[in-house]
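## retry 2 of 3
previous attempt timed out at serialization; input unchanged, resubmitting
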Amino acid sequence: MRRPGVNWWVAAWSLAVLLAVQAVPARAGQPYYAGKTVEVIVPFGEGGGTDVWARFVAPYLQKYLEGNPRVLVRNMPGGEGMAGSNWFAANARPDGLLLLASSGTSVFHWLLDRPQVRYDFDRMVPVVVTATGGVIYSSPTAARSIRDLLNPSRPLVYGGISATGLDLVTLLSFEVLRLNVRSVLGFEGRGPARLAFERGETNLDYQTTSAYLTQVVPLIQEGKAVALMSFGILAGPGRLDRDPAVKDLPTVAEAHQILYGRPPEGPAWRAYLATNTAGFAYQKILWVPQGTPQEAIAAFDRAVERMNADPEFHRQGEAVLGGYPTFGGSQVAEAVRDALSLSADVKTYLKDLLRTKFGVRL
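## retry succeeded, writing output
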């Protein structure tokens, strides 16, 4: 994939001077970010997991980035996350002032070679990285337990963004468990999908852990939702451990054991494990373009170190981060590259599934 070119020649001389002034500290010896504004593009609507995470992290970056820049979050929903991501790729300069918040949805569109994608994570550098998990839950009017999923009180209806986005992990869990679910896709974010669940338009949903803990747990406490299972944490080849953020919930593998009396296997299971890793192991990421000065990248590394040393960050983050670690990008850059990949056989299986079951041709 190629990042769209930028017609630099059309920039007026005065704008070039302004950008040059922005790109360096106002006075020698000042921190890189002194007197600057950092903008984070969230390519989804408000209320979803990526938005919740970005808005939680932003004030801590403002506090701990040397120079204390303003850090603003800007939602740019549309095109299942591709519109804002494409805009970032076309407009972000390598100066560390414009960041992209990605989720597994953004990653999967890219991994599956969707023709609308104009961004390329191989041309970006991660600067803040947080793992996360996901939880599948139901309306009590449809299913009150995992066993009910095979014989629900009402037909199961799931609301999602896109079969080629992070919903793919959920859709694959349905394949692994052989559930009869009607999937209604096209929502602009997990927030809108959750609101459809609350209105009774759907009765099966998932949220990333940050949104689950902050937005769904209250619904469970009110008797309006039932937590069923977590996606689990990859603990070795073919093995899932319980998610420590929701350790009382069984994993998808345990759900299969409950329903069929044996562990899952086969191509759907292998695809599930691969997409779980790509979509969740390093799921929430802030990116800057390649070529961003090392001084700026190092400033984020130090800011994350200070965040992790702040008890308030962990205390306030319990409901948002769910106990998952937050890393400076340099610390996990290679691991991120490895995670954001799919083997050829898994990609082939996924493209066949998307074409035959969801009408998506790639």
